[in-house]
Structure formats: C-alpha cells, structure tokens
C-alpha cells in the first residue's frame, strides 16, 4: 500500500520530494523536513552518510513517534535534542561516526531501544542515561577514546548480550575483565553492586512482531547493522 493514497497526502509526498531534491542540489547542514506529515511516511528512517549537524531544525520529533529504526550513521551530529525521548517505540538507533560528546538526560526514556551504536564519536565519559535502557541488548561504545571506565549501574541491563568497548584503554573494569567478554564483565559489575548476575534469557518482545515489521534482506544491507539488530524488528 502506498504511503500517500489521496490528494492531501499526495501533496505531502510532493513537498517531501521537493525538499529531498533541494537537499541534493544544495546541501545544507540543516535538513528541514517540516510539514511533510512524516508520521505517516515510514517506521524506518535511513539518513546515514549525510552532513546532518543537528536535529533541531524543521518539524518535530513527536511526528516520528512510530519510528522503529533511525540510522544517522556518518553525519556531523554534535548533540541530540532532548526531544529524542519522544521516539518511545524506537528499537534500533545507529549514531556511529558522529561528533557526540554526551547524550541528553531524556535519552533514558527510549524504553524500547534494543540496539544502540555509538561507535566513533567523541563521548567524554560513559553516558549514564544508557543505564536506564532496560531493553538494550546491543551496545557499541568502541572508538570513543575518552571512555576508560564503566559505571556499576550498567549491571542493571540484564538483557545486554553484546557490549563493544576498547578494552585496552580501560581502567575500570581492568583490561583482563574487559577482554573476557560481555558475560564476564557483567558478572563483575553485578558483584561490585552486590547483586546476583541474572541475565535475561527471554526472547525480545519484538519476536511477536507482525511479518510486515520484519526487516527484509535489502533493509539489512542498507541499514548496515549486525544480524542481531535485525532480529528485533
């Protein structure tokens, strides 16, 4: 079924296509997608490999509250707006190779997030809002040279299956623990918190997703995510 199936929505489609054409011919650091009725367009937003420097210009993120996938890989983002928290259904977020130094406190409200890629940014320390993302199964923090320690609170993420960090740089936990794998590292953090290590072995709630929400093979290739992330949708 087409996204635009009447005269009104056809106007939205024309407006979006016009803005896309302008963006290609005369790239600007602010990509304005306001007034395009994006809430009806898609549950997958693929904006990787552009020159986007912020998400504050044009439109409102609340219009994208049905979004499941957001790929902003290889852009120029130095910060995220607090309104990112409005994407409460978001499951996959790829922010690899940007210029992020921190995450907003409201980031902790992305309660459905399963896959978070923050590789190759400029994070000055471990972003604490991540410790409230209890559905998180995949986290990549590699190539953020200033991150040299993990908070004990990370042990709260019992669903976490894959954690990617630059172990050789780490002071806490020490390198030997960090190179031993995610399970060993999480067990250590639980011991430090005085809690039992109880990994969540239940399947993600996304396993009950309807077929039309599943990623196709072209989607997987385009998204450039790991196979694990594709299983969430």
From TrEMBL:
Residue ranges constituting the Disease resistance R13L4/SHOC-2-like LRR domain according to the UniProt record: 51-191
Keyword Repeat assigned: yes
Keyword tags: Leucine-rich repeat, Repeat
Transmembrane segments: none
GO CC field: cytoplasm
Comp. bias intervals (Polar residues): 198-210
Disordered: annotated segments: 198-233
SMART domains: LRR_TYP (SM00369)
Gene3D superfamilies tied to this protein: Ribonuclease Inhibitor (3.80.10.10)
Name of the protein in its database record: Disease resistance R13L4/SHOC-2-like LRR domain-containing protein
Origin species: Caerostris extrusa
